[in-house]
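Incident review: delayed structure delivery

Summary: a single-chain prediction request sat in the queue longer than the usual turnaround. Root cause was a stuck worker, restarted by the on-call engineer. No data loss occurred. The affected request and its eventual output are reproduced below so the record is complete for anyone auditing the incident later.

Affected input:
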Amino acid sequence: MSCEMLNAAIGVKVTHVPYRDIGPLTQDLIAGRMDYQCPLPGTMIPLIQTNKLKGIATLGKGRLAALPNLASAHEQGLTDFEAPNWYGFFMPKGTPEPIIRKLNAAAIATLDTPSVQQRLGAVAATVVAPERRSPEYLRKFVNSEIEKWAVPIRMSGTLIE
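Output delivered after worker restart:
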């Protein structure tokens, strides 16, 4: 979906080629059988660092520590563009609030450990700021992401209404 958002931002219509696995996708990128892809950055860092693939842009607002010379799409002129990957913890509707709070606190404690932060940094992941770690923030964020991604999803033809 990141590529769909990029396509919408630059005004192009590109044929989507689905892959079941990162391996065949990577092989086709290296062989030049496809023009570009928007995979998770951590999977491509070693290939970019060894010049087997050319990084075009990061899709977040800033650069990645692992690829400091690779400019973001934002820096390259797409100033309203941002399509980073993100993760959240979700539970079934109706989960008691004390359980949510306890699991949230455990997740935060884990994210704050140096070994976890080091590992996440190695795969180009960033731990969000403390003010973005509450269940309330995640609820608002998910709603804003649904709104943000609606247009490129509709444009891609992925969503059938």
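Verification: The chain has a mean pLDDT of 88.
Action items: add queue-age alerting; document worker restart procedure.
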